[in-house]
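Hi R.,

Here's the chain you asked about this morning:
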Amino acid sequence: ANIQSLFPHNVINELTRNQAYVPNDCVVIQNKVGTAPVTWFERNDKVLVSMPGVPHEMKYVMENEIIPRLQSKYEMEAYVSKVLIVGGYSESGLAMHLSDFERELPEGFGLAYLPSLGLIKLRLFVKGEQRRSEFNEQVRKLEALLGEALLWENDIPIEKILGERLFAKGLTLGTAESCTGGNIAHMITSVPGSSKYFNGAVVSYSNDIKTNILGVLKSSIEKYGAVSEEVAMEMAIGAKRVLGADCIIAVTGIAGPDGGTEEKPVGTVWISTAYKDKYLTKMYRLSNYRETNIIRSSNFGMMQLLGMIEERI
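And the predicted structure, written out as tokens:
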């Protein structure tokens, strides 16, 4: 079957055709990822740009067309900046820890907090390349204050950082996922080249899969529950055997919004990571929100394994 037979209504209609009309006094910029054109107007040395409303289209056009054109049109004094990725702090806790540092920053410097789920990005910045040496000194001070909470520098996703470490060390990775439902595997495989180090995943959402595929003992589930240190550890051991990987991330938890108990409320997550013959199993108390719990569990699992590989934990 061809595309037209599968989607009989996917034809050019009046609404689509109307998108081709643009004002006669603008520059039309091709939208390479959609149909709505981008229009660029100039008057009195000022610029007005009309962007597509679809978020991924707007982002693509802004990064690949609009910003380069603005940079070539206007001369601006560049910012010197650096992003540091921090773990182990809440945003407020980190702000308290760095309060003296922020207060003593030289005039013109700024420190931005960009919270992510389970991580915090710090962006230190100042305008002007002539302040580079002064900037480097402030970076050194900030790194010393962060200590082991500084996970890595530059704004790079954790799944890419982990992949780079695995590849550099010639290690392979597998995942055993319950409450994350394969999200860790999805994040890992979204990185180009991940086939060089990622073996595969077992999405052991049901207890039957935990026992029949991963070899988790039924007695462990009956005695401790599926969300427990013992089951997470056995999931990691089983995944290592089934997937034949050097490293494992195993996650079991209660993502919510229901399923929690007084002893194990929603947001209770056990993560077991394996690095060669070493295992580490930890419990995390997260939120009441399913989507954020899945993402934070995924991030924490990768951070925990990364810490083992780098011998920080």
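The first helix runs from residue 3 to 6.

Let me know if you need anything else.
M.
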